[in-house]
């Protein structure tokens, strides 16, 4: 496991969750977009998410060429083609926006077009899914043609392989043996979450849709749902997806729920699976934040005897079930932890909201505090800026972020900058401005000198930039 680095900076400044672009270049949006969906499961959750994301602003199919320049642009300005890109490596070719639009093609690298990751024949080319950006990607025209309208799947004996390793051939995942297309691992989760979005966005609006090898109208067949969910678990939400979600929200005024709340997928397509710990963070010297893969039953989750913090501490003093209305997350309060010290946490007797038992689990975490420190049980794999906690807050809050290690490069990254801005875009604080190693970090932000209101914090590193919103309430 990679060593995790920590830091703590006290300054004046401030921080919600979802955002679109404003005239200042900073984001804004509803503070509780998913309020009506929390604590629901199965069909009820699917229906609630449909109500939230339906009636989006419909864009024209021709406008996608322009929108892709916002939604699918690499840090170097090139087209982010998931069928030619090789994350952490050198792609065989890259496309330039506008000048490399298809057109005709005779082979790979000729041009890029507009791929329906949920093939248009599956919904009979009707609008609005025909131009819904959440399942449309700019991809190599020739590779898109080879993919055709086949479902995604697992290919062990390919009949054709693209230059970046995407494959066409017979499916080897259980439940289907026909021809499928397998993208590279780095984009399997992206495409799975696009399919999940389509299934909830067009729930009950699919009367004119067709069936396919993987779907029945907007329903995912059992084998296809199982495959996509496994991809969703293995290839977790990346910063690329987070940025794309924000960009599309600014265009269509709706969001992909499975990017914002990955646990929603389990509550719809894997309700027989027991909860797992996704991450555990020592937020302060007296609070421990745990993120689970599924919604937790409240009775079991709030029983302090079900949590044991080392033998020296024992049970926590209290348990908060449902942090910010998200019942896949709990917050433990305990006696003072020693800053920077690694502790074990045993979790037992928990179960999902629909009564599926969780395996008893023991994990480790590192306590935060005045010497800094935040740690989770996994090494960072993506460039991520987390939502501050607590939010709203007064006067201090914690901001966590992670800098991934780039394969084949030094562990140090380019300058990392974390700054806070007010709603007019004026800088109010610099929290980090230094070169640091790959790892997970926590910064404490003290807003004593600032008035109540909405603020934004921006993380920039290695050609990536993320902005999030937070609320100071005094």
Tags for this entry?
3 domains; 474 residues; globular; 23 strands; four-stranded antiparallel beta sheet; alpha+beta; disordered N terminus; Immunoglobulin-like; 18% helix; single chain; 25% strand
Characterise this structure.
The chain has 474 residues and is of the alpha+beta class. It has ten helices and 23 strands. It has helices at residues 42-53, 64-71, 141-147, 188-201, 222-234, 239-252, 257-260, 263-269, 298-301, 310-313; strands spanning 20-21, 27-28, 112-116, 136-140, 160-161, 167-170, 179-182, 215-216, 219-220, 277-282, 287-292, 307-309, 318-323, 326-333, 342-347, 361-366, 384-385, 396-403, 416-422, 427-434, 439-446, 453-461, 464-472. Strands 10-11-14-13 form a four-stranded antiparallel sheet, with no helix packed on it. A four-stranded antiparallel sheet has the order 20-19-22-23, with no helix packed on it. A three-stranded antiparallel sheet has the order 5-6-7, with no helix packed on it. It is globular and about 65 Å long. The two termini are 41 Å apart. Mean pLDDT is 85; it is low at 1-31, 369-380 and 407-411.
Summarize the structure.
This protein has 474 residues and is an alpha+beta fold. The chain has helices at residues 42-53, 64-71, 141-147, 188-201, 222-234, 239-252, 257-260, 263-269, 298-301, 310-313, and strands at residues 20-21, 27-28, 112-116, 136-140, 160-161, 167-170, 179-182, 215-216, 219-220, 277-282, 287-292, 307-309, 318-323, 326-333, 342-347, 361-366, 384-385, 396-403, 416-422, 427-434, 439-446, 453-461, 464-472. The chain has three domains: 31-268, no CATH class; 276-366, Immunoglobulin-like; 387-472, Sandwich (Immunoglobulin-like).
């Amino acid at each position: 496991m990679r060593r995790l680095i920590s830091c703590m900076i006290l300054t004046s400044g401030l921080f919600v969750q979802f955002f679109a672009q404003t005239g200042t270049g900073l984001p804004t949006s509803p503070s509780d977009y998913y309020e009506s969906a929390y604590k629901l499961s199965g069909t009820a959750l699917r229906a609630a998410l449909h109500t939230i994301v339906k009636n989006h602003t419909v864009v024209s199919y021709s406008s996608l060429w322009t929108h892709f320049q916002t939604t699918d642009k690499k840090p170097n300005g090139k087209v982010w083609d998931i069928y030619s890109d090789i994350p952490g490596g050198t792609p065989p070719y890259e496309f330039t926006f506008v000048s490399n639009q298809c057109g005709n093609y005779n082979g790979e690298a000729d041009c890029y077009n507009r791929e329906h990751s949920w093939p248009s024949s599956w919904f009979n080319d009707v609008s609005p899914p025909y131009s819904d950006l959440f399942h449309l990607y700019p991809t190599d025209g020739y590779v898109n043609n080879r993919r055709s309208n086949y479902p995604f799947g697992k290919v062990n004996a390919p009949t054709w392989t693209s230059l970046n390793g995407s494959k066409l051939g017979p499916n080897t995942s259980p439940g289907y043996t026909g021809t499928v297309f397998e993208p590279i691992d780095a984009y399997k989760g992206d495409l799975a979450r696009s399919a999940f979005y389509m299934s909830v966005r067009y729930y009950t609006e699919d009367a004119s849709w067709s069936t396919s090898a993987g779907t029945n109208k907007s329903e995912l067949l059992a084998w296809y749902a199982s495959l996509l969910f496994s991809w969703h678990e293995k290839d977790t939400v990346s910063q690329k997806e987070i940025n794309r979600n924000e960009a599309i929200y600014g265009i269509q005024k709706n969001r992909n729920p499975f990017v914002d709340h990955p646990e929603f997928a389990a509550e719809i397509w894997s309700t027989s699976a027991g909860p797992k710990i996704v991450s555990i963070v020592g937020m302060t010297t007296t609070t421990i934040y745990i993120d689970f893969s599924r919604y937790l039953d409240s009775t079991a989750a709030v029983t302090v005897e079900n949590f044991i913090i080392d033998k020296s501490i024992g049970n926590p003093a209290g348990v908060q079930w449902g942090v910010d209305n998200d019942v896949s997350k709990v917050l433990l309060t305990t006696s003072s932890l020693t800053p920077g010290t690694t502790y074990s946490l045993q979790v037992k007797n928990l179960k999902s909201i629909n009564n599926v038992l969780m395996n008893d689990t023991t994990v480790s975490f590192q306590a935060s505090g005045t010497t800094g420190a935040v740690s989770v049980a996994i090494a960072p794999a993506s460039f991520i800026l987390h939502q501050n906690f607590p939010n709203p807050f007064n006067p201090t809050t914690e901001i966590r972020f992670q800098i991934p290690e780039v394969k084949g490069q030094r562990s140090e990254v380019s300058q990392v900058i974390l700054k806070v801005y007010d709603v007019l875009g004026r800088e109010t604080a610099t929290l980090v401005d230094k070169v640091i190693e790959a790892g997970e970090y926590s910064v404490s932000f003290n807003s004593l000198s600032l008035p109540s209101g909405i603020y934004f914090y921006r993380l920039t590193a290695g050609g990536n930039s993320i902005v999030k919103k937070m609320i100071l309430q005094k």
